[in-house]
């Protein structure tokens, strides 16, 4: 393969260096067809078959990198985007970067947790308490919306150990599986913000070739996301059962109906379902008269 062109015409996309989003982010891009090789320093992934390079950075830096047009695009948690938006607003600035897509990974929540044995009678229990967080602006807004006065202890990391060190009475941190909280004998008590990954883009206008690649990437991302949920379903049924069966097929538009040789009153039904097909649905289809049910994963989809 010829050496990739590393000039200015290439898109720069920031992804989290190491963390909850890293693998899902690179996986999404690979599913979009990107082949990349990581340089020696591991900080850059050079796209081999697209004019797109990945920059591996701290997730908290991604909004700034995109806002300042150092990167054209970024894959980051809504939690980080929201914190940046509130921080800029507090300084009298507007966010200039934009969110292009919500993505189906990186689901987590920014939540308040207290030590296992601490009492909790609702948000009012936070009054006058010290809450450690790396999300001071989001937490401040939450407290304000709930009419609570509390001390926000802003840390740059390792928030979960603050109560044990006597630096805080509670924490406001991201919870995904909840294992970090359990390991630190903390108990989640309330949600501050629901989050998932998003794709953000620079506020600066892009050159036409770059713009075109952003559009192509978006189309592929939409395809990948649709496919993840979609299933191809095939079944046999008596014609008379078709109305009931069509109602049961989740998220399918117009199924293909094929006559069955030698059985004038029976048909085969093929349909793309844009939602997962669960066992319960199959059981209902069977009860409605369907047989020979087959559910297949969809590999690629382009509307
Ligand atoms: C978050 C958070 C916790 C962990 C929670 O870190 O700070 O450490 O994830 O996950 P769990 O509920 O599955 O245990 P993140 O990946 O955002 O990294 P960062 O805080 O270093 O940016
Ligand atoms: Zn982070």
Structure notes:
The strands form three sheets. A seven-stranded mixed sheet has the order 2-3-4-1-5-12-6. The chain has 303 residues and is of the alpha+beta class. The protein has three domains: 126 residues, D-Maltodextrin-Binding Protein, domain 2 (3-Layer(aba) Sandwich); 88 residues, Periplasmic binding protein-like II (D-Maltodextrin-Binding Protein, domain 2, 3-Layer(aba) Sandwich); 67 residues, Alpha-Beta Plaits (2-Layer Sandwich), CATH 3.30.70. The N terminus is likely disordered. Helices cover 27% and strands 32% of the residues. It has eight helices and 16 strands. Helix 4 links the parallel strand 8 and strand 9. The site of zinc ion has 2 residues, from loops.
Helix content: 25-40%
Low-confidence segments, given as residue ranges, are 1-6
Give me the oligomer status. single chain
Q: Rough shape? A: globular
Number of domains: 3
Mean pLDDT: 93
Terminus-to-terminus distance: 31 Å
The CATH class of the largest domain, by name, is Alpha Beta
Give the neighbour order of strands across the main sheet: 2-3-4-1-5-12-6
Number of helices: 8
Architecture (CATH level 2) name of the largest domain:
3-Layer(aba) Sandwich
Provide a quick synopsis of the model.
The chain is an alpha+beta fold. The protein has eight helices and 16 strands.
């Amino acid at each position: 393969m010829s050496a990739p062109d590393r000039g200015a015409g290439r898109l720069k996309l920031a992804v989290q260096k190491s963390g909850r989003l890293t693998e899902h982010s690179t996986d999404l891009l690979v599913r979009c067809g990107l082949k990349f090789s990581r340089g020696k320093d591991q900080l850059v992934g050079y796209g081999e078959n697209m004019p797109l390079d990945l920059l591996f950075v701290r997730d908290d830096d991604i909004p700034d990198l995109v806002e300042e047009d150092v990167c054209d695009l970024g894959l980051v948690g809504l939690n980080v985007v929201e914190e940046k938006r509130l921080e800029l607003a507090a300084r009298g600035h507007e966010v200039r970067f934009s969110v292009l897509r919500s993505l189906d990974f990186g689901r987590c929540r920014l939540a308040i947790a207290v030590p296992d044995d601490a009492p909790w009678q609702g948000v009012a229990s936070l009054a006058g308490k010290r809450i450690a967080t790396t999300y001071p602006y989001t937490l401040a807004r939450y407290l304000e919306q709930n009419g609570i006065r509390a001390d926000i202890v802003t840390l740059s990391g390792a928030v979960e150990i603050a109560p044990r060190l006597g630096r805080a009475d509670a924490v406001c941190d991201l919870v995904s599986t909840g294992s970090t909280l359990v390991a630190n004998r903390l108990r989640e008590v309330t949600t501050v913000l629901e989050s998932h990954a998003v794709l953000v883009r620079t506020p600066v206008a892009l050159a036409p070739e770059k713009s075109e690649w952003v559009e192509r990437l978006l189309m592929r991302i939409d395809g990948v996301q649709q496919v993840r949920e979609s299933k191809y379903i095939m079944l046999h049924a008596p014609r008379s059962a078709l109305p009931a069966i069509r109602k049961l097929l989740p998220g399918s538009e117009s199924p293909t109906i094929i006559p069955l040789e030698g059985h004038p009153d029976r048909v085969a039904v093929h349909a793309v379902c844009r939602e997962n097909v669960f066992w319960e649905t199959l059981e209902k289809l069977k009860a409605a008269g369907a047989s020979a049910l087959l559910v297949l994963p969809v590999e690629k989809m382009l509307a």
